[in-house]
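Protein entry
_____________
===
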Amino acid sequence: MANPFDLTDRVALVTGANTGLGQAIAVGLAQAGADIVAVGRSAPNETRAKVAAAGRKLTAIAADLGSTEPIDRIMADAGPIDILVNNAGIIRRADSAEFSEADWDAVMDTNLKVAFFLSQAVAKGWIAQGRGGKIIQVASMLSFQGGLRVPSYTASKSGLAGLTKALANEWAHLGINVNAIAPGYFVTNNTEALRADETRSRQILERIPAGRWGTPDDLAGVAVFLASRASDYMHGAVVAVDGGWLAR
């Protein structure tokens, strides 16, 4: 039986692939055989080297995903793709009583609006070609919980979980799989403030049965699974990768 996790010669578009979770996902997909189209504001030089070490090719597309403006160009420059990973995201922290409209809009636009319209653009191409594909959204523990001082982030990631199910309902019969990964507390730029707060960091670790923060590499395996034919009968799932956080 052929390896159901094999991604040889597939092309995966990964947003925010220059660092952190996006980089780990891109490298994991490359190690499974995929070529990578990395979309983001900064050059993914380190990711490119890691993808090359896996024997695959990386194409970089510079784009600010704070708005839908670059989507048409991204699609034109990317060429045919088989897998979309909507990983790019931002966070703003402030008390809800003082949270600004500008911070609300910035987070919602990047984390939810662009993820939808990029998914739409990719799916339109697959539908026109009469073929399926894989869409992976990067959600969050705050797709399930409320969090503290991050109202727009929670709203966007809760919305992304709902969007994953909504798109799956419409596109599953077309052979388009839409699923999401919900990372727990990982060592990334977005959690730097939490990890720097000794009390908050200790409280978080006390609740994680695994007893540690996640590392970006912990996401690679589930991303490969959701991108491969091993997950062909999965639609609308939100898979928690959280060290047991939700089980506590």
Observations:
- Residues 38 and 60 are 5 Å apart (CA to CA).
